[in-house]
Amino acid sequence: MLKNVEVDVDEILREVDLEHKKDDKVLNLSGGQKRKLCIAIATIGNPKYIFLDEPTTGLDPLSRRKVWDLLLNK
Question: pLDDT tens-digit profile of 45-58?
Fold first, then answer.
C-alpha cells in the first residue's frame, strides 16, 4: 500500500493514451493496451527504480516511443 500518494488516474491514463478506455475492464483491452496499463501502474508514486523486461514488446512504433519518453521523463 502506498501511503501519502495522490494518484491522478486521468493523467496517468493520458500519458499512455488510454484515457478513452478508463471505464473498460482490463479483460476487454488489447495486449498492447494491457502492456501500457502495466507500465502506467508501475509509475504510480514515482518510484526510484522500475524493473521492466522488454516493456515495449508488442507495441506499435508510436506507442513504443511514447512509453520510452514516459519512462525516461519520470
Answer: 888 899 989 989 88
**Structural domain contains residue 1:** no
4 lies in some domain? no
* pTM as predicted: 0.83
- Residue whose C-alpha cell reads 504510480 in the numeric block: 44
Residue 47 domain-assigned?
A: yes
Other CB atoms within 10 Å distance of the CB of residue 35? 21
10-24 burial, b for 16+ CB within 10 Å, e for fewer? eebbebbebeebeee
